[in-house]
Write a structure and sequence with these properties.
Helix content: 40-55%
Number of helices: 17
Largest sheet: 5 strands, parallel
Distance between the termini: 101 Å
Structural class: alpha/beta
Number of strands: 17
C-alpha cells in the first residue's frame, strides 16, 4: 500500500459561556463555538479525525472553577477511553485557572488525549506547547483577576456614594433607581420595634407581641417578577434589625459603614438606647424577664394527700433562676415528708399543657361540647366550636403569660400529682366559656378595641 492508514481520532467539542446574556438569541456564542470546532474537525478528516456523537456545552458557567456539568461529563468520558482529542474555540473556554488547567493536562497525558484550540493551535504533548498554553492561561487568569478588582472597586465607590448595589432591601425600605426610599408602613413598624425593645428590654417578649400582630420579614418582588413572601418574625431577625445601621442612614461595604443618601428611620438617641440594652449582659436581661413570668399553675396543683404545692424558686450563683412547685408539708415539716419531690415548674406546666391540648383535639369532646356551648350561646354551631378549639391550640404559644394563666384557670379546676401519676380535672363549663371567648367576631372586636 502506498499510503499509511490513519488512526481514527475521536474528537469532542467543548464550549462555554460565562453569563446568560445573549443565550436567548437564535444563534448565540455557544452555537458559534460549536460550529467552529466541528469545522476544524472536518478540515482534519484526512488525518482520521471524526466528531463524537455528543457535544459538551456549558452555558452560563464560570471558567474560574471546574464545577460545570458538561466539563465533568467530558472528564469522565476521557477517563473511560471514549475521547482522543478535545477541541475548543479558545483556551479560556476550557478554564481560566492555571491550577485547574494543570489538573486537566495531567488527565489528558495519563489517557493519551490531545488538546486543540481552533484559534490558538497547540499540541499539549510537547513541552513547547505546554509552555505556550501556560503563558496564555497566565494572561487569561490575570485578566480575570483585574476584571474582578475593577468590579469590586466600582461597588465600593458606588456604596460610598450611597447607592444600593443589589440584594434584598432591608425591612423599612424599597429600592428605586438604586436608591433606598422609605416604605412608610414598614418604616413605622421599624420605629415601633426599636421603641418597644427599649420599653421591654426583652427580645423574647417583643417577638411574642409581634407574632400576635402577624409581623413578618420583608416581602419583595424579584427583577424576574417572582414574589417572595415574608416569613414569621423570630429573635434572629429582631437582633438583625436592631443592629442594622442602615436605619441610621448608612450603608455597609465589607466591615465599613458609610453615610448614604437615603433618609434615616431611627434617630441617634433611640439607636443608642437600643445598643446600650444589647450591650448589657444577656443573662441579666433574661433573668429580669423571667422574674415577671407567673407560675402558670399557682393554686391549682395538689398532692395526692390533698395538700397544695406552693410556688418556689432559687437563684444560683450564676444568676440563673430555677422555678419549682414545692409540697407544703415538706416546707412545714421536713424535706421528703410528703413523699413527693420538688417539681420543676417548667416541666410540670409543659406536661399539663400538653395533656390539656391533647384533650381539646379529641373529636369526641367536640361532639360533647357542642350542645352545651349552644345552650350558653345560641349563635354557636358545631363548625364554630371546632374552629374555636382549633384556634386555641394554634395560638397558645403566642399568648402572653398572663393570658395563658387566665385561660388555664377557666379550664382547669385542679391538678393532682403523685410520685407516679398526674391527674387533670377540668372545670364544669370551662371549655364552653373559652370557646365563646375565642369566636372570631369576639376576637376581632377585642383586637379593635386594643388598637
Amino acid at each position: 500500500m502506498s499510503e499509511v492508514l490513519k488512526r481514527r481520532m475521536r474528537c469532542a467539542v467543548y464550549t462555554r459561556k460565562s453569563s446568560e446574556e445573549g443565550l436567548e438569541q437564535e444563534y448565540n456564542s455557544i452555537d458559534a463555538q460549536r460550529d467552529a470546532g466541528h469545522a476544524y474537525i472536518t478540515s482534519q478528516r484526512a488525518e482520521g479525525w471524526i466528531a463524537v456523537a455528543d457535544d459538551y456545552d456549558d452555558p452560563a458557567f464560570s471558567g474560574g472553577n471546574m464545577e460545570r456539568p458538561a466539563l465533568r461529563r467530558l472528564m469522565t468520558d476521557i477517563e473511560a477511553g471514549k475521547i482522543d482529542v478535545v477541541v475548543i474555540y479558545k483556551i479560556d473556554r476550557l478554564t481560566r485557572s492555571l491550577t485547574d488547567f494543570s489538573r486537566m493536562v495531567e488527565v489528558f497525558e495519563r489517557y493519551g488525549v490531545s488538546f486543540v484550540s481552533v484559534t490558538q493551535q497547540f499540541n499539549t504533548t510537547t513541552s513547547m506547547g505546554r509552555l505556550m498554553l501556560n503563558i496564555l492561561l497566565s494572561f487569561a487568569q490575570f485578566e480575570r483577576e483585574v476584571t474582578g478588582e475593577r468590579i469590586r472597586d466600582k461597588i465600593t465607590a458606588s456604596k460610598k456614594r450611597g447607592m444600593w448595589m443589589g440584594g434584598i432591601p432591608p425591612l423599612g425600605y424599597d429600592v428605586h433607581n438604586r436608591r433606598l426610599v422609605q416604605n412608610s408602613k414598614e418604616a413605622k413598624l421599624i420605629r415601633h420595634i426599636f421603641q418597644r425593645f427599649v420599653e421591654l428590654g426583652s427580645s423574647t417578649t417583643l417577638v411574642r407581641e409581634l407574632k400576635l400582630d402577624g409581623v413578618t420579614s420583608k416581602a419583595w418582588t424579584t427583577q424576574g417578577g417572582k414574589v417572595r413572601m415574608g416569613t414569621p418574625i423570630d429573635k434572629s431577625l429582631i437582633y438583625k434589625l436592631l443592629n442594622n445601621r442602615t436605619y441610621l442612614g448608612e450603608l455597609r461595604h465589607k466591615e465599613q459603614w458609610y453615610q448614604a443618601e437615603h433618609i434615616a428611620i431611627i434617630d441617634v438617641k433611640l439607636w443608642g438606647d437600643v445598643q446600650a440594652i444589647l450591650a448589657s449582659n444577656g443573662r441579666v436581661r433574661g433573668n429580669t424577664t423571667r422574674a415577671t413570668v407567673p407560675f402558670l399553675l399557682k393554686g391549682l396543683v395538689f398532692g395526692n394527700d390533698g395538700r397544695a404545692l406552693s410556688p418556689w424558686y432559687t437563684t444560683k450563683k450564676n444568676g440563673h433562676r430555677y422555678r419549682y412547685y414545692l409540697p407544703q408539708r415538706d416546707a412545714k415539716e421536713c424535706a421528703g415528708a410528703s413523699g413527693l419531690p420538688r417539681l420543676p415548674a417548667a416541666q410540670l406546666e409543659s406536661a399539663v399543657l400538653e395533656q390539656l391540648r391533647a384533650i381539646l383535639r379529641q373529636p369526641a369532646l367536640i361532639a360533647e361540647i357542642v350542645p352545651q356551648a349552644i345552650k350558653l350561646d345560641p349563635s354557636l354551631d358545631e363548625a364554630k366550636v371546632t374552629v374555636a378549639m382549633t384556634r386555641l391550640d394554634a395560638i397558645w404559644d403566642q399568648l402572653f403569660p398572663a393570658e395563658q394563666s387566665r385561660i388555664v384557670r377557666l379550664l382547669i379546676e385542679k391538678v393532682i400529682v403523685s410520685p407516679t401519676n398526674m391527674e387533670l380535672r377540668l372545670r364544669a363549663n370551662g371549655i364552653e366559656k373559652v370557646v365563646m371567648e375565642l369566636q372570631p367576631a369576639r376576637v376581632e372586636r377585642k383586637e379593635g378595641a386594643l388598637a
